[in-house]
Amino acid sequence: MIKVQSLSHDFEIGRKGNKTIIPMLRDISFEVKQGEIVTIVGRSGSGKSTLLNLISGFIHPKEGEILINNKNVTKLSETKFADFRIEHIGFIFQSFQLIPSMTAFQNVELPLILKGVNEADRKKTTEEILTTVGLIDYKDHYPGELSGGQQQRVSIARALIVNPPVILADEPTGSLDSETEQELLQFIKNLNMELGITFLIITHDQRVAEIGNRTIELRDGRIYSPELSTKQEVLL
Predict the structure, then answer these.
(1) CA distances from 229 to 14, 38, 216 (A)
(2) Using CA atoms, how far apart are residues 82 and 212, in angstroms rounded to an integer?
(3) Is 136 helix (H, G, I), strand (E, B) or coil?
(4) Domain definitions of the chain by residue range
(5) First and final C-alpha spacing in the chain
């Protein structure tokens, strides 16, 4: 599903002639198989967000390759990667990234508009997804009228709307209280088991990391343990 090979990246800061190189990732290699939940953990500055941005195509790596669904996306142009994302990747963000002036229905529907889906099919699919996440009765509510957990479910519904094989999540419970966090994590596990969706989750929270079938730890831009541990029991 996702294959990262010898990935390295750094950032340049400063002006021409006086630039400083800041190394972020060094020789990262791992695979995420179809139907897995893989969590990536590490302290602030370990390179987690950079890695997710590279896999998402928002930045291009200095070295190495990224394959998603057997397609090498490393050299895709921004336009071609944008087209690829809308077909193959869903996103869940810590801050929800909902448009405040749009209802829950409109926020979830938006990717289908970008894909050019006709209005009747958009309405049917959007209502089905909102029913799946338990928010059909809130479809006309604006983000400011929803709880944090409800807003994150809208974000998940938006990620699911194009039926992506993989969802990338960046600290998906970071803005939630402990009780809502547990509810959301159970919901993610249910989606994984029932729909077979692959999840790659970035987190610094050990409770979130525990839902993964495997956990990758980053330290100072490198994978801390080359042997990715498989959990001894299936988390339900």
Answers:
(1) 40, 11, 8
(2) 27
(3) helix
(4) 35-61+77-223
(5) 22
| H or E stretch covering 192 | helix 178-195
Cβ atoms of residues 235 and 189 within 8 Å:
yes
- DSSP state string for 198-219: EEEEEES-HHHHTTSSEEEEEE
Alpha-carbon gap, residue 103 to 22, rounded angstroms:
41
Helix axes 148-160, 178-195, angle to 10 degrees: 20
Distance CA 45, CA 211 (A): 23
pLDDT at 38 > cutoff 50? yes
Spell out the long-range contacts of 217-221 with Cβ–Cβ below 8 A and sequence spacing 24 or more: 217/40, 217/41, 217/42, 218/28, 218/40, 218/41, 218/42, 218/46, 218/47, 218/48, 218/51, 219/42, 219/43, 219/46, 220/46, 220/47, 221/23, 221/24, 221/25, 221/26, 221/28, 221/46, 221/47
Is 166 in contact with 90 (CB distance < 8 Å)?
A: yes
The CA distance from 215 to 231, in Å, is 9
CATH superfamily of 35-61+77-223: P-loop containing nucleotide triphosphate hydrolases (3.40.50.300)
User: How much is the pTM?
Assistant: 0.84
* Cα–Cα distance for residue pair 104/109, rounded to 1 Å: 8
User: Residue 53 pLDDT > 80, yes or no?
Assistant: yes
- What digits encode the pLDDT tens for the residues 115-170? 899 999 999 999 999 998 899 999 999 999 999 989 989 999 999 898 888 999 99
Q: Which two tokens stand for residue 118?
A: 């006709």
